[in-house]
């Protein structure tokens, strides 16, 4: 008899683990030009997370969707609450904490950006949680109407708009705010739907994966991403990122057992989200200590810092996982 854990896609978990560390490299870059190239490559991370969420939403009932909404909403409140306090501590450390500075964090303009574009006023990378929450809310509405598959056209429309408004305008020298593209509307939902499409095609046995073509997408996407980063001067999403993510995802569906039992598979399954959420706290503390120690501008520090932030955040995430497991065991004993 097949055990339930054998049905897991271990390869997707491996890539989720890699994606978590890739996002760290976006925020904590190596010195240029290596840092720029790695930044371009790392752009597959967030799209992959959205795709995984959409993939595992296919065929799920309303009860499961509501449960996921409650879970993401809880994380949304906790993460934004923690980073709100973190911002207050930063203001206190800089001796600039005041009633006016707190009001600035909660200004009407920032609250509107938060509502429309998912941009948290407390820490930028938390846009992901807001966008993911919107994904599940909109998906819940689509399931109620039975329209989820009719919306697949939005994959092409939204991604084309993202690349045109973001990368395209940047290449010709026109700049717009990243808020217009880094949000639920043009990044979160199209990748969520793309993962959902993969699940439908696989479930209906129409998905034919040719590993050579998938690997070609991955390699070509990697090369394009680095080139597009240099050409555009930096962006939120590249055509290469889309190709990379599709290549990675199809390879994971082709060989789901790859990486079973590995550390990266464990990280992808258990701690990737916490690495994503709490990396900026580790980064801020690291930067503050480096300034105090007078080593911030040293080349060795610049090269070691991104690696340290990734490892330290993983250790923190593992600690949080152990605390959670301990709390669950204590609750079970008390029943």
Features:
disordered N terminus; 13 helices; mainly alpha; 335 residues
What would you note in describing this structure?
The structure is a single chain. The protein is an all-alpha fold and 335 residues long. Helix content is 74%, strand content 0%. The protein contains 13 helices and no strands. The chain has helices spanning 10-27, 34-41, 45-55, 62-93, 99-105, 108-117, 127-145, 153-171, 184-203, 211-232, 239-254, 263-293, 299-334. The model is unreliable at 1-5 (pLDDT under 50).
Fraction in helix:
over 70%
Number of helices: 13
Our Rg estimate from Cα atoms comes to 20 Å
Report the principal-axis shape: globular
Number of DSSP-assigned strands: 0
CA-CA gap between termini: 32 Å
Order of helices and strands: HHHHHHHHHHHHH
Structural class assignment? mainly alpha
Q: Which percent range describes the beta-strand content?
A: under 5%
- Uncertain stretches: 1-5
Largest sheet: none
Question: What do the pLDDT scores average to?
Answer: 94
Short summary:
This protein has 335 residues and is mainly α.
Describe the protein's topology.
Blueprint: H1 10-27, H2 34-41, H3 45-55, H4 62-93, H5 99-105, H6 108-117, H7 127-145, H8 153-171, H9 184-203, H10 211-232, H11 239-254, H12 263-293, H13 299-334
Helix pairs in contact: 1-2, 1-3, 1-11, 1-12, 2-10, 3-9, 3-11, 4-7, 7-9, 8-9, 10-11, 12-13
